[in-house]
Specification:
By secondary structure, the chain is α+β, with helices and mostly antiparallel strands. It contains 6 helices and 8 strands; from the N terminus they run H-H-H-E-E-E-E-E-E-H-E-E-H-H. It has a 4-stranded antiparallel beta sheet. A 4-stranded antiparallel beta sheet has the order 2-7-4-5, with no helix packed on it. The chain is globular, with a radius of gyration of 18 Å. The chain starts with 13 loop residues before the first helix and ends in an 8-residue tail after the last helix.
């Protein structure tokens, strides 16, 4: 990373943070709120999904998402089951598997769940947290309302789904979600 303007940086070691949280447990929720806010701000500024909205619309939309923190190994989407909503991975990595075979690894900024939501079908692949993950989840009902009022979101997600299907065709017609 390179600073593009005069910058002051505060660095704290993990050990110092650990000691601080142990001494003052009330610090932990404050640090988590800061981290969440920082990740959301970066995401809102960089995710193509949110670029289609003005700041007020983005703020309204982001309030509809649920913030999730999950441990490595946590199942997020089950193959053959309805998808709980549209996921946006903020931090960490998740593994996409079809019939037990890994077909993709997702990282920060990646969306998933859109293919089954758009198609109104069950998930064609499983997604499991590969590491500790911070995610946003837009529940199905809110996703449906969003797509009814913002057709540009449907167009964006349809294009993403098409790219995934095309990419999957290169490895044997694997549909991700």
């Amino acid at each position: 990373m390179v600073a593009t303007a005069p910058t002051q940086l505060l660095a704290m070691s993990r050990q110092l943070i650990h000691e601080l949280v142990n001494a003052e447990p009330a610090v932990w929720p404050v640090l988590l709120r800061f981290l969440r806010t920082r990740l959301l701000d970066r995401l809102l500024a960089t995710s193509p999904l949110f670029q289609q909205f003005d700041r007020g619309e983005r703020d309204e939309l982001i309030r509809k998402f649920r913030f999730l923190e999950v441990a490595a190994g946590t199942p997020l989407v089950a193959q053959g089951a309805p998808t709980p909503g549209l996921f946006l991975l903020m931090a960490g990595h998740a593994e996409v598997a079809r019939d037990g075979a890994r077909v993709a690894v997702l990282g920060p900024g990646d969306l998933f769940g859109e293919m089954s939501l758009l198609g109104g079908d069950v998930a064609g692949a499983a997604v499991t947290a590969h590491s500790k993950c911070l995610l946003l989840l837009l529940p199905v009902a809110d996703f449906r309302r969003l797509t009814m009022t913002h057709p540009q979101v449907v167009a964006f997600l349809s294009e993403l789904a098409d790219q995934r299907v095309q990419g999957a065709s290169d490895v044997g017609h694997v549909e991700l979600l």
